[in-house]
Amino acid sequence: MVAPPSKLIRHPDYATVERTVRERNDELRERHGAHHIGVSKKYRRGKRLPETCVTFYVKRKGKDVKAEPVPKHLELSYESGVRGRQAATDVCAIGWREPAGFEMRGGDLVIAGDGETGTVGLVFRQGASDFFLTNAHVATDPGAPPGRIRVRARSGRTVHGVVQRMDDLTAPLVMSDAALVRVPANSVTPKRFHGTELALDSCGEVANNDPRKFYYVAEDFVHVLRWRASIPAATPIRIDGHLLRYAGFHAFDVTFGRCRPGHSGAVVFCASQRGLTAVGLLFGGIQATNEVWVFPVRLALAQMGVDPDSLAGQAET
After folding, report:
1. pLDDT tens track for 210-259
2. Which of 9, 193, 239, 265 is the Cys-Cys partner for 118 at CB 3.0 to 4.6 Å?
């Protein structure tokens, strides 16, 4: 009996494509020489097309690459076990520079005990205490206990903080890179950001193929973002000299501004008539292609023992 031809699905359900990537991630990366694999829209000559595809991010393209060519289509893994349906693939060259955490450097806002710097993310108040959210790798190097933290405020004031809780970056698979830092009472203006008069109204999520315009603030500059891809499975990223495996994040193109080391810890948000909705915590990316990588902010807050919905209504002028 001859098997029926495979059916190409132009707009497969994102959950199905992500399941396919998770199940075959290591095998596909090794076979086709990909650094990481994502789920995104297809691009042709820089133009974004409507088809949803499995995207192979490689360091370079070409017939001389010592890996199997990426197939034009990839069979989808359905929960029901249905076979024979395929999604299109795409290949994107990221260059020879490895994706890396935007390590802390002098001159930015958060200053760790070793003198490296990063960015303050979300600031808020609980009871009589003030806190801010940033990355665990901003607070310390992977596997090292955190030291004291300083924040160089825009006014020139220096505020000292203590890490209350942070994610374990020595885990086999890192699904969140967050640290909660406590600072003295009345040190922050809750849920306010430089560069915008709007205050944080809520914490939300990022959807696959999210059409909204996103922002983050670093170095007193408001960067503008566009959703590019979801990265559901293990992806190598170099953090403070350690090669770690991260998963479960989104990639965004920076359409206005330039990402660079020192931006780790920034909160990604979008705007509405009611105010700002925080959706992500920036932890790294690919500077050469002006792309940032972002974990869900609700997950980051929950990991820190903070109910994201409890932050509503805290803004002060």
Report:
1. 999 999 999 889 999 999 999 999 999 999 889 999 999 999 999 999 99
2. 265
